[in-house]
Amino acid sequence: MPINRRQFIKRGAGAVTVSLMMPKLWMGGRALGQQPPTADRRIFLVIQLDGGSDGLNTVVPFTDSLYLSKRPTLGFKDTELKDPNGASTILGNEPFGFNPAISEMKSLYDAGNLAVVLGAGYPNQNLSHFFATDIWQTASTTGSGEGWLGKYADQELVGLSSLSALSIGGTSPKAFSADQVVIPNIAPAGGNDPFINYQYQTDPRNAGDKNNQLNTFKSTNSRSFEADSFASAIARAGFDAEAGSAQLRQAVQTYTPGATYPTNNQPSPQAVQFASALKMVAQIVTTIPEANLLYVRLGGFDHHSQQIGTADDGFTDKTKGEHAILLKALSLGVSTFYQDMAAHGLADNVVMMTWTEFGRRPNENASHGTDHGTVTPVMIIGNPVQGGKLYGQQPSLSDLDAAGNLKFKVDFREVYATILSKWLNADAGSILGSQFKDSNVGFFG
Amino acid sequence: QDLFGPPDVAGWSFNLGWVDTASMLERFNYANLFVTNRNPNGLGAFVTNDVLKSYTKASSKKTVKKFFSVLGPLSPGNSTRKMLQTYLETDDNGQHVGFTNNDATIDKKIRGLVHQIMCLPEFQLN
Fold it and tell me: Rounded to whole angstroms, what are the CA distances from A68 to A57, A316, A339?
């Protein structure tokens, strides 16, 4: 009696644990080693803050009396804008201060290496996480179509190395969704080798057969299929996955850290996890000279309740709590990565951008939290940035929209356009639409 | 891919939304994990040699065709079948040695064959 695939698998299948021992695999190819930076190399790292980070408590408009009246519990007074060492986090003579948790980013701002774009948003903002995320990822207010960096990849990365762009995380970001190229995504593994799962694995008991398996796999997945068919796309993604993983795993072994990344759950597990992803980016960009477009994520910013404080302080201590933990993870990760890039001679070659799908409502809620809002500041970081300055415009707290949210002042696609045209030397108009062809927010001059 | 852990609250995307290099590599490696786990008393899915033996034929051609049927049915075409036959008939040194239906072949090459079939685009779409 014939049996089908499902029955075949059922015959021997119990509960499945994917974290069983993974075999190591020999990787062929040329060791790339650590490459000397080239003057014209341009690396762009996107940092997505998933969940909608509270912009008003990140770049704090502390002189605006309406800010504290709308945030009697959560709001920072000027006297509270100090880091743990007592240093002010107020931005020079500006009426803004950084949340004390991002003191490392304040140092980057003071050094002229971090710019803030205030008031970023778009018309008729959507307050749904997934819709708003899609809008930011696709640079389209319908949230549909390819990703904005996928469109860039379709124009600029076709025919180049499959490691020209990479994301680190559980899944590939929609921003990297492209028509002509498949951008690899690496899911980090715990332990000393975060890349360990990123390889084509074969039977550990028959290591001598691995080359036969690899050769067969490459043959069967490089066959010709009908153009634009699912089979073609799946074969291409599968083939690229193996080829990219082999090249990448060999290259990153030559990396030596140039900075000390957080470990041992200090200052928080979130900080260590985020720093691990950034360290993977550092491993990649310092050893693979064609890897110039990277993407990482820091999640958990949806602070509807207990945004500040802990149970010990009745959720009132603004220097503690969930938002402070995540902002510290961001700040520490970014500054450590910046130091690592500087140690590798790449500080002049890297630009980072943070974004989140929306800010929070100006009014705090009754649960020591904030609900979904609209506009949000965008941070642009790196030596090439004309930092230590604020760009855009802070929306007025006395001129809110009908729902009580901030009105946007800078279309976020103007930020993208500035990066595309001034840093990535791409045609912003064809990627974002002709209305953004000549947009320049100014953070590159 | 975690069935109950989609990338966002909209759930898993349709069509090619679930296809990227990381997810494909994970699927290939999951297949390998399944097919190389021989321990019926341990954790995880497993395949015994007896199960594999019951579908293994005297020739490599008939064996590949049988597993196309068992794991599908799949019809990837003659060129693909020949690639897999070549795999079955090649030793660790890359030499063509032919196919022998015995326990050693089943534990090594038939497990490899199942992994290779599970890595075919036709299997992924089936």
Answer: 11, 14, 35
Residues 6+ apart with CB under 8 A from A93: none
Rounded to a whole number, what is the distance in Å from the CA of B29 to chain A's nearest CA?
6
DSSP string, B53-95: HHH--SSHHHHHHHHHHHT------HHHHHHHHHHHTB-TTS-
Tokens 């050693």 correspond to B104
Contact (Cβ atoms closer than 8 angstroms) between residue A13 and residue B39: no
Which of A 132-191 lie inside 8 A of B, CB atoms?
A: 133, 170-172, 182-187
**What is the token pair recorded at B63?**
């064996």
Q: Are strands A293-299 and A389-392 parallel, antiparallel or unpaired?
A: unpaired
Cα–Cα distance between A268 and A332 in angstroms, integer?
Answer: 11
CB contact under 8 A, A184 and B22: yes
Using an 8 Å Cβ cutoff, are A380 and A351 in contact?
yes
Sort out which chain B residues have CB atoms less than 8 A from A170's CB and list them. 5, 7
Q: Note the Cα A190 to chain centre separation in Å.
A: 19
* CB atoms near residue B6 (< 10 Å): 16
Tell me how far apart the alpha carbons of residues A331 and A206 are, in angstroms, rounded to a whole number.
Answer: 46
Q: What are phi and psi of A68, to 5 degrees?
A: -75, -30
Taking the model in full, what pTM does it have?
A: 0.80
The question of ipTM being above 0.85 is answered as: yes
Which amino acid, one-letter code, is at B10? A
Encode pLDDT of A380-425 as tens digits.
999 999 999 999 999 999 999 999 999 999 999 999 999 999 999 9
* Cis-peptide, bond into residue A194, ω within 30° of zero: no
Q: Is A8 on the interface with B (CB under 8 A)?
A: yes
Task: Give the mean pLDDT of B17-43.
Answer: 82
Interstrand relation of A376-381 and A114-121 (parallel, antiparallel or unpaired): antiparallel
DSSP-derived letter for residue A391 is: E
The beta-carbon neighbor of B72 closest among A5, A129, A206 is: A5
Joined together, the tokens standing for residue A64 give: 């605006």
pLDDT, average across residues B95-99: 97
- Residue B36 at interface with chain A, using a CB cutoff of 8 Å: yes
* DSSP for residue A36: P
Contact predicate A424/A152, CB 8 Å: yes
How would you classify the pairing of strands A376-381 and A350-356?
antiparallel
B28-54 CB burial, b ≥16 within 10 A, e <16: bbbbbbbbbbeeeeeebbbbeeebbee
- By C-alpha distance, the chain B residue nearest A133 is B8
Rounded Cα gap, residues A185 and A167, in angstroms? 5
Between A336 and A1, residue with greater pLDDT: A336
pLDDT at A283 over 70: yes
Please report, to the nearest 10 degrees, the dihedral formed by the alpha carbons of residues B96, B100, B104, B110 taken in order. 80
- Rounded to a whole number of angstroms, the distance from the CA of B75 to the nearest CA of chain A is 13
Pairwise CB contact (< 8 Å): B119 & A201: no
Token readout for A170 is 């559980």
**Radius of gyration of chain A, Cα coordinates, nearest whole angstrom:** 23
Closest to A413 (Cα-Cα) out of A425, A421, A405: A421
